[in-house]
Amino acid sequence: MRKWNLIIDIEKCEDCNNCFLACKDEHVDNEWPGYTEAQPRHGHRWINILRKERGQFPLIDVAYRPTPCQHCDDAACIARDDSQAVFKRADGVVLIDPQKAKGQKQLVKACPYGAIWWNAEKNVPQKCTLCAHLLDSGWSQPRCVQACPTGAMQMVKVEDEAMIRLATTERLKVLSPELGTHSRVYYKNLHRFENCFIAGSVAIDSDGVMDCVQGAAVVLKQEDQITDQVQTNEYGDFKFDDLEPNSGTYELEIIYKDLEKRTISIELTHSQSIENIVLS
Fold it and tell me: Based on the number of CB atoms within 10 Å of its own CB, is 94 exposed (0-12), middle (13-18) or buried (19 or more)?
């Protein structure tokens, strides 16, 4: 059977919050019987956009991760449910029955992704429904996907085998796979949020005048093995990304024409920006 899956490309998210606003527009003051009570005007973020800054001045990047309910196949909220109020549909969508879930505040803490919110006025836990009321009416996308101006979000309805192939081809990942929840929200370029980079800028000192070096070979090594190699761009900059944090000692070798090779040792705990590597 084909099931719904949400794909989010972190590289394309610009933190415009259109998805968040579209969610509010659809659910604030609007009750969808059988799907959810109305969302409160303030407090709830059914799609919560988290921010991650990496590096140091002047080589810094910032990534944004929209985080809705993960619609897990093995959902922790279902395991904590006392009255079968939380259920997974055959098409992959997880819903909280707004009547059966009355008073079940423990469901808020059950979610390891922090995606369930407590509506004190309605006395009910709430979360993203993937706009299931719209999907059931023939719509192909929830409001958040429709509102995204950069194409950072995509909904696909495919069989599990096809989704596995797509995830492999596009290098998609899920949040915290060690939890074993089998999320149906997949992320592209998740390394922008979870992993580290080593970046730097190479220049040459010509009689006291500093010039950017374009085309210098920069080799990244670990335990004397080459792990990657790039060339500096027209500004003398280079970058190695998707490195595991706290992954040990790396060596950078900078080679340019007949100048003396520079070697720099780096203990990688978090993203590192190396300013003004000067060749002489």
Answer: buried
